[in-house]
């Protein structure tokens, strides 16, 4: 972990228990299959973009076609965990628990998504300055997978997730520039 790395979740002292360390690096030996990746340059500077993505509630704003929030954990403006329903191909849904595990200020947000008892993925947002905007990479590395999820991934689930990632990145710029009212 670098000097500017934060322990868990957004940079709020009460957002998560202290003493949590960064998520483990994903090496070839710990991945199941190829990563699921989408990239896009958005016309938002890294600082405001990082602040937007550091609250999990905002993630669901940009992925609303594919995700329904069941529950958010943490205080408003500093949600660091969630339970959600993710739409999959063929009308299938999977309940997922997600948690931000580590951040590197204005550069990276790393979390884990747990699907059922057997499937887990490390999900990372990487932000790099690109002119007046930011190059954003959204990447998921499947760490372990149950039989049913392995079959779903093989039958088009990876393509479906990549498409959902690309749609979320397509919504990111507008969502950052049009914050939701505080009265939600």
Automatic annotation (TrEMBL):
<feature type="region of interest" description="Disordered">
    <location>
        <begin position="1"/>
        <end position="25"/>
    </location>
</feature>
<protein>
    <recommendedName>
        <fullName>Polyketide cyclase / dehydrase and lipid transport</fullName>
    </recommendedName>
</protein>
<dbReference type="InterPro" id="IPR023393">
    <property type="entry name" value="START-like_dom_sf"/>
</dbReference>
<dbReference type="Pfam" id="PF10604">
    <property type="entry name" value="Polyketide_cyc2"/>
</dbReference>
<dbReference type="InterPro" id="IPR019587">
    <property type="entry name" value="Polyketide_cyclase/dehydratase"/>
</dbReference>
């Amino acid at each position: 972990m670098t000097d500017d790395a934060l322990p868990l979740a957004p940079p709020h002292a009460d957002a998560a228990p202290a003493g949590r360390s960064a998520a483990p690096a994903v090496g070839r030996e710990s991945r199941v299959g190829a990563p699921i990746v989408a990239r896009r340059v958005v016309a938002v500077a890294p600082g405001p973009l990082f602040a937007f993505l550091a609250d999990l509630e905002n993630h669901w704003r940009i992925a609303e076609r594919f995700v329904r929030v069941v529950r958010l954990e943490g205080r408003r403006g500093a949600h660091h965990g969630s339970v959600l329903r993710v739409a999959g191909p063929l009308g299938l849904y999977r309940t997922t628990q997600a948690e931000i595990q580590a951040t590197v200020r204005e550069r990276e947000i790393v979390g884990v998504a747990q699907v059922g008892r057997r499937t887990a993925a490390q999900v990372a947002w990487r932000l790099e300055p690109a002119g007046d905007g930011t190059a954003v990479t959204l990447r998921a590395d499947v760490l372990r997978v149950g039989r049913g999820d392995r079959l779903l991934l093989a039958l088009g689930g990876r393509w479906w997730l990549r498409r959902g990632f690309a749609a979320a990145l397509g919504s990111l710029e507008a969502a950052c520039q049009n914050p939701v009212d505080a009265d939600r």
